[in-house]
Amino acid sequence: MSRKWERMVSKNTKKANLSRTKQGKAPISTDPDRPVVFKGRSIMLAAFFIVVSLFLLFTLTKTEGDKMYWYTTLSYLVVGVLIYFVRRPYLRVTKTNLSKRGLARELVLGAENIKEIVHAPGQIIIELTGKSPRWVYNKTLNRFDIAAMAAKLKKFAENNKISYVDKTV
């Protein structure tokens, strides 16, 4: 198909799917090139802020009129809850790129910068070329769906000619 025809089909499919979702029906088709996003939970950082909040609450001195102490304690609790429910770590897999959330921005990694992908029991390790640190996603610490991630990353590795090592067998 020509590119113009593909764009027209994609545009009409989006319109039809939008109207079907408004009617409460299932979409008629999905875009195979659409990125797949695997979301986890940031348990450690959220737990750290909640523990600091509880520490401040239990070490409260019995002073009168000190409202800043209560605001600080409550702020740590709110930040911990927000990190757990709102700021979730993710791995986005597109045709030629992988991306994740960094400290202040989204980190995008092209297929040419990946040395290998290792699927170990309960975790996925993405080894990078150069001195960049590896990306590690595990089930116990961040609550990722490792089986689904492994299947999609295996297909990604085959399409982009990247070494894929399965250590679960």
UniProtKB/TrEMBL annotation:
Keywords linked to the UniProt accession: Membrane, Transmembrane, Transmembrane helix
Domain of life: Bacteria
Renumbered residue ranges of the record's region Disordered: 1-29
Transmembrane segments: 43-62, 68-86
Keyword Membrane: yes
Name of the protein in question: Methyltransferase
Organism: Paenibacillus oryzisoli
